Amino acid sequence: MTVRKASGQNRVWQRMLSGRRLDLLDPSPLDVEIADIAHGLARVARWNGQTSGAHIFSVAQHTLLVETIMRAQDHEVDDRLRLAALLHDAPEYVIGDMISPFKAALGDGYKSIEKRLLAAIHIRFSLPPVLAPEIEKQIKAADRGAAYLEATLLAGFSESEAKRLFGRDPGLPDEVREDYLTPWTAAKAEKRFLDRFNALQV
């Protein structure tokens, strides 16, 4: 599937609350604002909203969980890697969160848009456009650990099914699990995402 630049009257940009217009096919780092990312991710539901709780389990809360798992697994991980983990799903503030089976069905077209957006976001916040494979592997491992917890505690998966699909329980302390796996309000998710982003700035 080839993604082509739209022509004529086809609109390929998204207007953000900040006033920025982000071109989906040719995104500029200059049009990326962390406030827009935090606002959007706090309102995008993981698991297509098929989770228990009074609120959606947002992508913002998921990214905070991933960064927390990475920190728990490697206390020496530096702030730039933690920031990359926090931003690993940042393109979803504009394209939404699609479940993995649907991403696979869409193929390379979706992936190419996602990669362009992530590269622009990385550049905006002084990260490499493309992360080194070993860093991507570390983030992916934490992401799968988060998926295991979300699947078993929120999305109705059995432990055996989640283990087969996502791997093992990352072994977070009970109080951390209770905090990060209790769906927050959008306002709380947005604030905590921004607070963590600001704390990781170096």
Describe, in plain words, how this protein is organized in 3D:
The radius of gyration is 17 Å and the shape is globular. With about 200 residues, it is mainly α. Strands 1-2 form a two-stranded antiparallel sheet. The chain has helices spanning about 35-40, 60-75, 80-85, 90-95, 100-105, 110-125, 135-155, 160-165, 175-180, 185-200, and strands at about 15, 20-25. It has ten helices and two strands.
Largest sheet, order of strands side by side? Answer: 1-2
Supply Rg.
17 Å
**Fraction of residues in helix:** 40-55%
Shape: globular
For the report, how would you describe the main beta sheet? 2 strands, antiparallel
The total of beta strands comes to 2
Low-confidence stretches: none
Please report the distance between the alpha carbons of the first and last residues: 39 Å
Distinct helical segment count: 10
Multimeric status of the protein? single chain
Q: What is the H/E string?
A: EEHHHHHHHHHH
The computed structural class is mainly alpha
Q: What is the average of the pLDDT values? A: 92
Strand residue percentage: under 5%
Name a few traits of the molecule.
single chain, two-stranded antiparallel sheet, mainly alpha, 202 residues, 3% strand
Condensed summary:
Helix content is 54%, strand content 3%.
How would you summarize the topology of this molecule?
Layout: E1 13-15, E2 21-23, H1 34-41, H2 59-73, H3 79-86, H4 92-95, H5 100-106, H6 108-124, H7 133-153, H8 159-166, H9 174-180, H10 186-200
Antiparallel strand pairs: 1-2
Helix pairs in contact: 1-10, 2-3, 2-7, 2-10, 3-10, 7-8
